[in-house]
Amino acid sequence: VQLQASGGGLVQAGGSLRLSCAASSRTFTSYAMGWFRQAPGKEREFVAAISWSGASTYYGDSVKGRFTISRDDAKKMAYLQMNSLKPEDTAVYYCAADPVPPSIITTAEAFRYWGQGTQVTVSS
After folding, report:
1. What pLDDT score does 33 carry?
2. How many C-beta neighbours within 10 Å does residue 70 have?
3. How far apart are CA 88 and CA 102, in angstroms?
4. DSSP code of 61?
5. Which region holds residue 63: left if phi is over 0, alpha if psi is between -120 and 50, else beta?
6. Residue 34, SS3 per DSSP
7. What is the pLDDT at residue 58?
8. Partners of 61 in the beta sheet?
9. How far apart are CA 95 and CA 114, in angstroms?
10. Exposed, middle or buried, 19 (CB in 10 Å: 0-12/13-18/19+)?
11. Strands 17-23 and 3-6: what pairing?
């Protein structure tokens, strides 16, 4: 599975961005999709995930109510809509894919396939 993340950029605090993740796999519909982020000097952090069916979504505490994850299986795409951005959201954002169960879907180590990352910078 190859993943290509895009949509990052520079935005002012309070603004919005939508990240996209394009997948190459023919079995995309069997994969859970996740978004993780890593800021300089910090560990990779769980942001959001969506189950293979799209029926269940999961969010990190720091982004609940501000970010929304979605998927379009026909286009083999996953999205992360980020609203009310804060300077602390600044990081490289990675999309990930794997047929992981809900019990470990928030864990980076559960995902085998990763995109290259896209930089999000939020200015104050």
Report:
1. 97
2. 15
3. 27
4. T
5. alpha
6. strand
7. 98
8. none
9. 6
10. buried
11. antiparallel
Tokens of 58: 């999961």
Structure tokens at 18: 């939508």
**Hey, what are 65's tokens?**
């109510």
For residue 5, give both structure tokens.
């993340």
| Per-residue CA distances from 49 to 13, 40, 109 (Å) | 24, 22, 14
Report yes or no: 123 and 59 within 8 Å, Cβ to Cβ.
no
Task: Give me the average pLDDT of each 10-residue run along the chain (124 residues).
Answer: 96 98 90 97 97 96 98 96 98 97 95 96 97
Strands (E), the chain: 3-6, 9-12, 17-23, 32-38, 45-50, 57-59, 67-72, 77-82, 91-98, 113-114, 118-123
Side chain identity, residue 40: P
